[in-house]
Give the backbone structure.
Amino acid sequence: MSFGVVILRLLTAALLGSFVGIERENKKRAAGLRTHVLVCLGSALVMVLSEYLFNAYRGLTNVDPARLGAQVISGIGFLGAGTIIKQGVSIKGLTTAASLWATACIGLAAGAGFYTAAVVAAVIVFVTLRTLSKFENKEKALTGISVKIENRPGKLGEVASFIGKMGANINNVEIEDDEEDYMVVRFTLNLPKGLAQNDVVSQLKTLNGVKSAE
């Protein structure tokens, strides 16, 4: 394999990974642009390495060029699991986990030189993430709540679990101010019908360790 082919395959993977990652970045998901680029690039490198090893040791030993790629498919699960958050009875992050898995597969295709499949798959993934969400259930209202809580281990998770038990789904979490004793966290919530923003704020104020909520 020539140097130019290696560069082309890796750059194609990085480009297609960024194509999918930009959409996740715009949605402010845990796995955004850089994560998708690295996943796609790493997967492509695995396939390039597999082809190199196959050609280097062909006839000397039994080398399966698909073996390393298969490990990527199964191994990407740990990264996807890190994007999934369980809140009460609801689970968030499955779409991002699926996009990471799909991006890894796109990288494998690019690394193998199957550019047509890689490009078509990347376009389909992007269109799916970008447009099909319009057909999902939109009954829940999106709202933002800032909470000032004690800056100690486990307190943020406790507040998040408390919100989940009220029936609200956490769409995004941002730490706006991190001080020594307190930190201000902004939760973007999907509120079901019957649960008002003021109700959530009132309940959060009663939670131990919460200084304020608005």
In short: Strands lie at 85-87, 90-92, 141-150, 169-178, 182-191, 210-213. The two ends are 60 Å apart (CA to CA).
